[in-house]
Protein backbone atom coordinates (compact mmCIF):
# COMPACT_ATOMS: atom_id res chain seq x y z
CA UNK A 1 0.00 0.00 0.00
CA UNK A 2 2.82 2.42 0.75
CA UNK A 3 4.39 2.38 -2.70
CA UNK A 4 1.24 3.48 -4.60
CA UNK A 5 0.67 6.19 -1.98
CA UNK A 6 4.27 7.32 -2.32
CA UNK A 7 3.87 7.60 -6.09
CA UNK A 8 0.58 9.50 -5.80
CA UNK A 9 1.85 11.93 -3.16
CA UNK A 10 5.06 12.47 -5.10
CA UNK A 11 3.02 13.33 -8.19
CA UNK A 12 0.84 15.69 -6.15
CA UNK A 13 3.85 17.43 -4.62
CA UNK A 14 4.43 19.56 -7.71
CA UNK A 15 2.25 22.67 -8.16
CA UNK A 16 2.23 22.36 -11.96
CA UNK A 17 0.86 18.82 -11.73
CA UNK A 18 -1.79 19.91 -9.21
CA UNK A 19 -2.80 22.72 -11.59
CA UNK A 20 -3.06 20.22 -14.45
CA UNK A 21 -5.32 17.98 -12.34
CA UNK A 22 -7.52 20.97 -11.50
CA UNK A 23 -7.82 21.79 -15.20
CA UNK A 24 -8.80 18.21 -16.00
CA UNK A 25 -11.59 18.33 -13.40
CA UNK A 26 -13.57 20.31 -15.96
CA UNK A 27 -13.20 17.97 -18.95
CA UNK A 28 -10.76 15.91 -21.00
CA UNK A 29 -8.15 18.08 -22.69
CA UNK A 30 -5.72 17.80 -25.56
CA UNK A 31 -2.07 17.92 -24.46
CA UNK A 32 -1.56 21.19 -26.33
CA UNK A 33 -4.49 22.75 -24.44
CA UNK A 34 -3.07 21.52 -21.14
CA UNK A 35 0.28 23.13 -22.01
CA UNK A 36 -1.18 26.49 -23.08
CA UNK A 37 -1.40 28.29 -19.70
CA UNK A 38 2.09 27.27 -18.59
CA UNK A 39 5.32 29.10 -19.39
CA UNK A 40 7.22 25.94 -20.24
CA UNK A 41 7.91 23.79 -23.24
CA UNK A 42 5.58 21.10 -24.51
CA UNK A 43 8.32 18.58 -23.64
CA UNK A 44 8.29 19.76 -20.01
CA UNK A 45 4.50 19.47 -19.84
CA UNK A 46 4.75 15.99 -21.36
CA UNK A 47 7.10 14.97 -18.54
CA UNK A 48 4.59 16.22 -15.97
CA UNK A 49 1.84 14.32 -17.76
CA UNK A 50 4.03 11.21 -17.72
CA UNK A 51 4.39 11.45 -13.92
CA UNK A 52 0.63 11.88 -13.51
CA UNK A 53 0.00 8.93 -15.83
CA UNK A 54 2.50 6.71 -13.98
CA UNK A 55 0.73 7.56 -10.72
CA UNK A 56 -2.58 6.58 -12.30
CA UNK A 57 -4.02 10.06 -11.74
CA UNK A 58 -4.66 10.62 -15.45
CA UNK A 59 -4.88 8.52 -18.57
CA UNK A 60 -3.76 9.54 -22.04
CA UNK A 61 -5.38 8.44 -25.26
CA UNK A 62 -4.64 9.22 -28.87
CA UNK A 63 -7.70 10.29 -30.85
CA UNK A 64 -6.72 10.79 -34.45
CA UNK A 65 -3.63 13.00 -34.43
CA UNK A 66 -4.35 14.48 -31.01
CA UNK A 67 -3.32 13.08 -27.63
CA UNK A 68 -5.98 13.62 -24.96
CA UNK A 69 -5.68 13.60 -21.18
CA UNK A 70 -8.41 12.41 -18.86
CA UNK A 71 -8.60 12.67 -15.07
CA UNK A 72 -8.84 9.31 -13.27
CA UNK A 73 -10.53 10.35 -10.00
CA UNK A 74 -10.63 6.82 -8.55
CA UNK A 75 -6.84 6.90 -8.34
CA UNK A 76 -7.11 9.44 -5.52
CA UNK A 77 -9.43 7.21 -3.50
CA UNK A 78 -6.66 5.35 -1.64
CA UNK A 79 -4.86 8.60 -0.79
CA UNK A 80 -8.13 10.18 0.29
CA UNK A 81 -8.98 7.27 2.59
CA UNK A 82 -5.49 7.46 4.10
CA UNK A 83 -5.81 11.21 4.74
CA UNK A 84 -9.34 10.93 6.14
CA UNK A 85 -8.04 8.64 8.87
CA UNK A 86 -6.18 11.63 10.29
CA UNK A 87 -9.31 13.74 10.25
CA UNK A 88 -10.98 11.27 12.63
CA UNK A 89 -8.62 12.22 15.43
CA UNK A 90 -9.72 15.01 17.69
CA UNK A 91 -7.33 17.37 19.40
CA UNK A 92 -6.67 16.36 22.97
CA UNK A 93 -7.16 18.98 25.67
CA UNK A 94 -4.12 18.09 27.77
CA UNK A 95 -5.17 20.30 30.70
CA UNK A 96 -8.56 18.61 30.91
CA UNK A 97 -6.91 15.20 30.58
CA UNK A 98 -4.49 16.03 33.40
CA UNK A 99 -7.38 17.20 35.62
CA UNK A 100 -9.28 13.99 34.85
CA UNK A 101 -6.26 11.86 35.83
CA UNK A 102 -5.81 13.79 39.07
CA UNK A 103 -9.46 13.20 40.02
CA UNK A 104 -9.31 9.51 39.12
CA UNK A 105 -6.02 8.85 40.90
CA UNK A 106 -6.97 10.53 44.23
Order of helices and strands: HHEHHEEHH
Instruction: Give the strand order of the largest sheet, numbering strands 1, 2, ... along the chain.
Output: 1-3-2
Strand content is 5-15%
What is the distance, rounded to the nearest whole angstrom, between the alpha carbons of the first and last residues? 46 Å
Morphology: elongated
What proportion of the residues is helical, as a percent range?
55-70%
Low-confidence blocks of residues: none
Largest sheet: 3 strands, antiparallel
Number of distinct helices: 6
The number of E-state strands comes to 3
Mean pLDDT: 88
Given helix and strand content, the structural type is alpha+beta
Q: Return Rg in Å.
A: 21 Å
Topology:
Elements (H helix, E strand, L loop, with lengths): L1 H11 L2 H12 L2 E2 H5 L6 H13 L3 E6 L2 E6 L5 H11 L6 H11 L2
Antiparallel strand pairs: 1-3, 2-3
Tell me what the structure shows:
It is a single chain. The protein has 106 residues and is an alpha+beta fold. Helices cover 59% and strands 13% of the residues. It contains 6 helices and 3 strands. A 3-stranded antiparallel beta sheet has the order 1-3-2. α1 packs antiparallel against α4.
Q: Quick summary of this structure?
A:
The mean pLDDT is about 90. The longest helix has 13 residues, at about 40-55.
List keywords for this structure.
106 residues; alpha+beta; 59% helix; 13% strand
Amino acid sequence: MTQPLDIIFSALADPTRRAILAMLLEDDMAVTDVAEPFAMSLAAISKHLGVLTAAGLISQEKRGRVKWCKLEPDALREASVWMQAFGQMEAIDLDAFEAFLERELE
